[in-house]
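Exercise 7. Given the components listed, write out the predicted structure of the assembled complex. Treat all entries as one system.
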Amino acid sequence: MYSVPERITLFSAGSAAVGAVYPAIMAHTGGHGIPCPLRTLTGVPCPFCGLTTATVALTHGEWATAARTSPLACLVAILAVGTAPVLLARTTGLASAPRQASSTARKRITWGAYVIVALSWLFQLHRYGFI
Amino acid sequence: MAYQGTPSYSGAPASQYSDWIHRVGAYLIETIPVFIIYLIAFVTGKFIVISLFGLIALAYIIWNRWILGGQGQSLGKKALNMKLISEETGQPIGTLNAFVRDICHIVDSIICYIGYLFPLWDAKRQTIADKIMRTVVVPV
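Answer.
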């Protein structure tokens, strides 16, 4: 059993693997990446726009590009890298199962996540020239 | 209100719900036949063949996701020993609700498909569509 940060780390590892080969796939298929449905329909970006581009940039060492495209992706990457040792310890049996977070802790983390997502949305709105 | 006599899944620990990777696995198992159908159709390049295969794919979706899914186990979920049930009654949600739940997946998709990642951190491993429809996916 893994904690939420560890599950996000596992997902991030998978995303990084896809991001590493994504440009090759797009070049071969002539694709243009995954469009955001909200932006496609309305022109308005969502808080998560830029994640694909930033993930590809991070896996290719283009830190500045990743930060300019999606600071949220960079934050998740930092979380994933920081959590990786714990995940490794848990997988190899060196660490015990994670403790359930208290209700108060979960609420604080949830509100923190809402703030981060809201800031990401403001960033994307600015990136696309809305503010 | 929870159905009396049937255990409600509300408030159960996260480990009681199917995790994200299994849900993705079930989706891939179900989607591969549709993908193959479309691939065969597009290779032919003929409009009538593409249209016919489109109808076959639609019939498959109706049968698998709404009829079987409404009964609790689409093909993918059956293969990976999971079932889709109402959070409140613990029972399958029926064909109509399964269809409405798929419509609700628009909300999961509209925000760069992040809604589909909610089971990674949600306490009940629900997508946004699951939250709207009050459904959960649990191991059998």
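Discussion: Residues 4-127 of chain A form one domain. Residues 4-29 of chain A form the longest helix (26 residues).
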